[in-house]
Specification:
Elements lengths: L9 H15 L17 E7 L3 E6 L9 H12 L7 E6 L12 H7 L3
Parallel strand pairs: 2-3
Antiparallel strand pairs: 1-2
């Protein structure tokens, strides 16, 4: 795959999405010290031909003062995906986040059963 390609197959798009999620594992929630993927904060990733990516995320609490920090970290992590030329991070509140969205790893790390 090259970043100049404007039309991707479904398989290529799925590969790009997989690499995006791997990159999001490098984005750490500053308060909890766990990445946003394992916390279950990434709700949806859409990649469109031409390199546009729309990502829907949530936060553990409404009014989180670190929303801008996390968004900036996401945008920086997306720079490692050469096929993505533009990223739009949308903050959503539905469905509401709860601890059931966390991975087993995150639960163990935070001592949640």
């Amino acid at each position: 795959m090259t970043e100049k390609k404007s039309v991707w197959t479904e398989e290529e798009i799925e590969d790009i999405k997989k690499r995006i999620m791997e990159a999001m594992e490098q984005v750490i929630d500053p308060e909890l010290g766990i990445d946003i993927v394992n916390l279950g904060l990434v709700y949806e990733v859409n990649v469109f031909n031409g390199g546009y990516c729309e990502m829907k995320i949530t936060l553990t609490t409404m009014g989180c003062p670190l929303a801008d920090v996390i968004t900036e970290d996401i945008l920086n992590a997306m720079k490692t995906i050469p096929e993505v030329t533009e990223t739009d991070v949308k903050l959503v509140w539905y469905p509401a986040w709860d601890t059931s969205r966390m991975s087993r790893y995150a639960r163990i790390a935070l001592g949640i059963r």
